[in-house]
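Hi U.,

Before I forget, here's the chain from the pilot set. I'm dumping it here mostly so it's searchable later in email.
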Amino acid sequence: MAGNNIEVEAKYRMLRIEVRNMIAVDSKAKDVLEIQPLQFKLEVPLALCDNGTQEKLQKDALAKMEKDVKDIVAKAQGLVNDETKNLGEDIRKELGKDEKGDKSAYRNAVKQIESAVARLEDIVDGLPPSVREAVKKVIKGKGFEGIFPKQTLTSVGSWGFRDRKGICVRPGKFKNVTKDDHADADKELWEALKNAKSSPHGFVFVDGSKAGLVVRKSITTDDKKLAKEQSNGGKAWTGTVTREGDIYHFDLDRDCNESTEGALARKISALVQKRCNRKVKVKVSDDDQDVDDDRSETKGGQAESGKKP
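Structure:
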């Protein structure tokens, strides 16, 4: 049974539920927010009496189970979408204040997002017990006597935002953003670098009067704009970053000479240390030729490697 992005299937031994995204993104909210998919998967093992003479009743019981569970998930999905829509409206109000020069608007927006994300997660966290209760009512329901043996219901699954980032303001929307307001961006950068161990991430590094660096699963035009804003303009370098042990490999999309690669490695390493308060070993390469940041002046002739995330 499928619809509204909700898939529910009850079979002889298992009830399965999957929602690839609980959020139907409102176009106005999408204009001001980056919203990651909020996923939900759950399985509830079932036991039915092995009695061929009651096959029709079994099918009826499973069909009712599917319907009741889907109604519960759909109701939760409605609450999620109302919450997301309201958040979009609240952030647009803060944007209006920001345009008038209110320097607290961005901080207020971040706090509103954090509160909304917590409420969304609470809604989804409440689904497994609600689903089990609905299944329990069918099992004990009138007319289905003898279909289900006595059983203790359990469930297993995973749910939450696909990306740890969850929801955030689209880069470049707020103009009155101070250095202190970017404190969370440093945490986000470090998390992205750590995640590069399990899967390659894209990066954009801007070598300007100040260096700018954004690391994401995939780099967008807005990410490039954000890196340039961090650096006050300059030459942009893009590519892929991976992590092997405590070494971060930044592979460039275009050719450059060895001297430039070494300079970039030192600058990226220094920037990560400054923004994330972590010392890391960086290697920059193109055409599979790595140049690392060991060229920087250090006592003993070796650059200090950083802590493992």
